[in-house]
Amino acid sequence: xxxxxxxxxxxxxxxxxxxxxxxxxxxxxxxxxxxxxxxxxxxxxxxxxxxxxxxxxxxxxxxxxxxxxxxxxxxxxxxxxxxxxxxxxxxxxxxxxxxxxxxxxxxxxxxxxxxxxxxxxxxxxxxxxxxxxxxxxxxxxx
Length: 142
Hints:
By secondary structure, this protein is an alpha/beta fold. The protein contains four helices and six strands; from the N terminus they run βββαβαβαβα.
């Protein structure tokens, strides 16, 4: 039986160099961030889910489809820094575990999030975990 409270944080920024405005890109009639939030917010292992963004435009879009949002600094260099800002905010201070869910994975398997929470739950010696999969010998990770 799980006793930890778990917050899912979805970092989303407009300034992606590889795909500008990625969170608001339309996918089957909805913004990518909406697809991700709709999926992640249904995961039973998460007690709450918030989108962390530096852009008011993303925040407004997220609020329009019902997501909780926290505006974060535009100076962050990574989604991890954005998630860390959320973790330090008094509004979210009561959560035992914080899961960084990538904002560009609308089909993420909820079992992966369950595995991450299970791996970290109740451990004081391991404050951070990452879901990873090894590459097959013939796969190119680049």
